[in-house]
């Protein structure tokens, strides 16, 4: 039986999956690992023990509450981690604040496909503070699922945290940027805490949607009215709360819905 056949067999064996209570890794020389669809990492009776992966420098993971698991467990499991890509199918639990560090992490990419309305995007600052070597931070959101409280009031209403000066982050990008208050707070915090930042991109369009300007299509990918209105609120939030915090040495790139293909009403 080949490796692919074994993987197919295990993934289609529901009874075997239900009996699986313990996963243990003893291959300490692994450098790259990919795992997905562990819907109950914290469920009673289920144990995921990766061991001490001293040489591991790349992890790709796809599961529920990925940010919570990664922030809690990975710094001690994989101390040499340089690249971390997370895809969360359903994010409910906020990323915790912890003293542990990702001392060598340089590239962080987070995909959040479904997020609880109570989820606090500002909690993702915990990854930023724990990663002194981080150079690229990319956050990808499904804008149409954003149901959080939108930003209002003045800058004084934004939450403040004790800042950790960051000297290596060069690029910060949010795709699917919306008007959620905690998302604006995260953006402002990173802007005000980073001394090395060169570019920040805030994309208010749908993740993965093609545009007439960069494709052979004569019209952009259709955006529902609700998304167009959310993009408008996001653009207002950028102008009011974020633009004034961008240093002259940092390039701010704001991507908005095409004005030819999409009409953004007041």
UniProtKB/TrEMBL annotation:
This is At1g61320/AtMIF1 LRR domain-containing protein. Residues 18-258 form the At1g61320/AtMIF1 LRR domain. InterPro entries: At1g61320/At1g61330-like, LRR_At1g61320_AtMIF1. It comes from Panicum virgatum. Pfam families: LRR_At1g61320_AtMIF1.
């Amino acid at each position: 039986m080949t490796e692919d056949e074994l993987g197919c067999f295990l993934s289609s064996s529901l009874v075997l999956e239900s009996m699986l209570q313990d996963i243990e890794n003893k291959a300490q020389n692994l450098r790259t690992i990919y795992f997905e669809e562990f819907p109950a990492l914290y469920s009673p009776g289920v144990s995921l023990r990766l061991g001490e992966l001293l040489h591991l420098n790349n992890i790709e993971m796809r599961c529920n509450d990925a940010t919570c698991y990664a922030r809690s467990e990975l710094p001690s499991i994989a101390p040499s981690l340089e690249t971390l890509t997370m895809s969360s199918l359903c994010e409910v639990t906020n990323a915790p604040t912890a003293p542990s560090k990702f001392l060598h992490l340089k590239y962080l990419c987070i995909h959040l496909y479904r997020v609880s309305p109570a989820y606090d995007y500002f909690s993702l600052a915990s990854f930023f503070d724990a990663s002194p070597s981080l150079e690229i931070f990319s956050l990808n959101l499904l804008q149409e699922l954003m149901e959080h409280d939108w930003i209002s009031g003045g800058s004084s209403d934004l939450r403040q945290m004790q800042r950790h000066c960051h000297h290596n982050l060069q690029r910060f990008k949010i795709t699917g940027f919306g008007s959620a208050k905690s998302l604006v707070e995260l953006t402002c915090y990173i802007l005000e805490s980073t001394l090395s930042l060169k570019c920040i991109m805030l994309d208010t369009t749908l993740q993965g949607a093609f545009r007439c300007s960069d494709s052979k299509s004569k019209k952009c990918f259709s955006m529902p009215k609700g998304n167009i209105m959310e993009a408008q609120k996001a653009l207002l939030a950028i102008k009011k709360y974020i633009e004034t915090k961008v240093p002259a040495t940092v390039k701010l790139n704001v991507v908005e819905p095409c004005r030819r293909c999409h009409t953004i009403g007041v």
